[in-house]
User: Which sequence fits this backbone?
């Protein structure tokens, strides 16, 4: 069965420094992977998605993620954090053969210090 | 387009009461789903529908009913609320998946439910 593990429940960075949010997945089939962001008291917004085209995926607001099959990882990065990036981030896997069902990681809360 | 809308935004129920959470989308999406979000657990799928008249269970369906009479609406019913159903509920929708394609799911703003 597919699953997602977000390795850090909280990440704290200073404004202007790089962001790394880690995600490992387990999937029986070729996976589709997503990162969603949730700002406080808001719904979820798609940051980026991997669909077996390019392994380096660029998303909105300067975020990108790299799919590494050998490591079963899909880490999210951003070169320079902004205060507005403070939010909760979810790594999500969807089986290619039944992609209606999304499996969410437990989330990583990103804190950005001034 | 309003996207995915949910009502109410907040609700407090007493144990044993029933209620319906409303979800509507104006994007003509075939697929709709309900998730619940609990602290430290991410979102978990409750029920989903791939089109009008078709529904199926997700990961945590017990205590919830759904129906899909139109493409636009997908209400979630709690027949007898329990404190364990205190959560934030999100509705999502997307286009029907074509072979080889991956469609983004659009989420509503959520309903925060408290059961006393």
Assistant:
């Amino acid at each position: 069965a597919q699953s997602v593990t977000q390795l850090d429940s909280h990440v704290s960075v200073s404004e202007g420094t790089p962001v790394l949010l880690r995600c490992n997945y387990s999937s029986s089939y070729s996976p589709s992977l997503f990162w969603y962001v949730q700002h406080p008291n808001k719904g979820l917004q798609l940051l980026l998605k991997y669909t077996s085209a390019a392994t380096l995926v660029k998303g909105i607001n300067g975020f990108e993620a790299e799919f590494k099959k050998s490591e079963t990882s899909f880490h999210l990065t951003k070169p320079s954090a902004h205060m507005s990036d403070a939010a909760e981030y979810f790594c999500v896997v969807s089986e290619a053969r039944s992609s209606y069902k999304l499996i969410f990681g437990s989330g990583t809360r990103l804190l950005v210090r001034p | 387009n309003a996207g995915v809308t949910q009502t109410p935004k907040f609700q407090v129920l007493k144990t044993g009461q029933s209620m319906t959470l409303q979800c509507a989308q104006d994007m003509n999406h075939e697929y709709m789903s309900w998730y619940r979000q609990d602290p430290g657990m991410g979102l978990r799928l409750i029920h989903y529908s791939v089109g009008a008249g078709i529904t199926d269970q997700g990961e945590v369906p017990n205590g919830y009913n759904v129906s899909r009479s139109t493409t636009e609406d997908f209400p979630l019913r709690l027949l007898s609320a329990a404190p364990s159903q205190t959560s934030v509920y999100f509705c999502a929708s997307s286009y029907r998946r074509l072979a080889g394609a991956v469609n983004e799911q659009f989420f509503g703003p959520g309903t925060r439910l408290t059961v006393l």
